[in-house]
Automatic annotation (TrEMBL):
Xref: SUPFAM superfamilies: Thiolase-like
Biological classification of the source: Bacteria, Pseudomonadati, Thermodesulfobacteriota, Desulfovibrionia, Desulfovibrionales
EC number(s) from the headed UniProt entry: 2.3.1.179
Taxonomic superkingdom: Bacteria
Gene name for this UniProt entry: fabF
Enzyme class: transferase
Catalytic function, reaction form: a fatty acyl-[ACP] + malonyl-[ACP] + H(+) = a 3-oxoacyl-[ACP] + holo-[ACP] + CO2; (9Z)-hexadecenoyl-[ACP] + malonyl-[ACP] + H(+) = 3-oxo-(11Z)-octadecenoyl-[ACP] + holo-[ACP] + CO2
Pfam families (alphabetical): ketoacyl-synt, Ketoacyl-synt_C
Positions of the Ketosynthase family 3 (KS3) domain: 1-409
Pathway membership, UniProt: Lipid metabolism; fatty acid biosynthesis
Name under which the protein is recorded: 3-oxoacyl-[acyl-carrier-protein] synthase 2
Purpose of the protein: Involved in the type II fatty acid elongation cycle. Catalyzes the elongation of a wide range of acyl-ACP by the addition of two carbons from malonyl-ACP to an acyl acceptor. Can efficiently catalyze the conversion of palmitoleoyl-ACP (cis-hexadec-9-enoyl-ACP) to cis-vaccenoyl-ACP (cis-octadec-11-enoyl-ACP), an essential step in the thermal regulation of fatty acid composition.
NCBIfam families listed in its UniProt record: fabF (TIGR03150), PRK07314.1 (NF005589)
CDD domains: KAS_I_II
Amino acid sequence: MNRVVVTSVSAITPLGNDADTSWDNLLAGKSGVGKITRFDAADYATQIAGEVRDFDPTIFIGKKEARRMEIFTQYAVCCTKMLFESAGWTVPESERARVGTVVGVGLGGLHSIEEMHAKLLKKGPSRISPFFIPILIANMAAGQVSIEAGAMGPNICTTTACASGTHGVGVAYTDIAMGRADAMICGGSESTITPLGVAGFNAMRALSVRNDEPELASRPFDADRTGFIMGEGCGLLLLESLEHAEARGANILAEVVGFGASGDAHHMTAPPEDGAGMAYAMEAAIREAKIDPSEVDHINAHGTSTKLNDLCETRAIKKVFGDHAYNINICANKSQTGHLLGAAGGMEAVFAVKTLHEGIIPGTINQDNPDPECDLDVCADGPREIQANYALSNSFGFGGTNACMLFKRFTR
């Protein structure tokens, strides 16, 4: 098995249009949640979201090309540009078949579906764009990233609801560990803050309706949490085998040491109350790393701010770690970004890597009234300058799909 390392990260989030700005604002305790500006949400139960602000794809993509991409694909391509700039590397012609792409996307092109459906009803089928289908399909993010990078290795889209990004990282890690590739671009991208998207989650009563206080609405593990906040964006990582990274003199940010995946086999949208499936995924990642659970000192929680998810995740963490669960520094990035759905795992993997590399654990905002059943340490007092050695990043999605990545502070 090859050792797998992270050599670059990139992100576009509600906290900033690059990884460093997003990270700085995360540590500053800022919220990226505000009033919806993409459409008139006055008649919607939820009128707030974690939108990406001031995004200009033409900084990285030509205007013509950008028009032929959904927003989630634009995010992924722009992140790829930043990823390779940060890595100080381009894929050599001789290595193209050994570099691949796995980008998780949960829902795909809702913007295009809504726009083209309205046009179909108003003007008829002859007015539908020939680019409609290629633009909206979820795997187009991975496809366009592959084109941008010149990566001819595995080209995959993982679509597993809110676990899509983490499964993307896990598949990429597995391909390198097994020797199928030398380097992989991986993570997740999503943009579904649309009338249909918001209305759909409202119909499920999944979203917070704390419209008068947007910055306070996402409150994981708080007793007053009332639902999640939709977010959008992208988080990508460049993974390489240690041998490949060292041969090119790469700056190594962290090591990937474990991937766990499981299914709840329980319900379409609700986890079992004991969090068993979540626990299985965490245990699998730890087992693959061949470490004791007591060695894990940081968890980037899924922490959606929904009643059942936060409770079940807390129970699952206690099941896996026992008394050590109370010693783990836990954070919930969604308190500041909202829930990026298919991109959440990619973004949170980026933050987990930066946590290990920078020696700072982000805080969790808005836990003003801790839920007595969610009694673990979620760093509600703000960031902590602690050099964590292992960071577990959790993602759990509709359909009972669970995924966890375990990262390690890099040492030779």
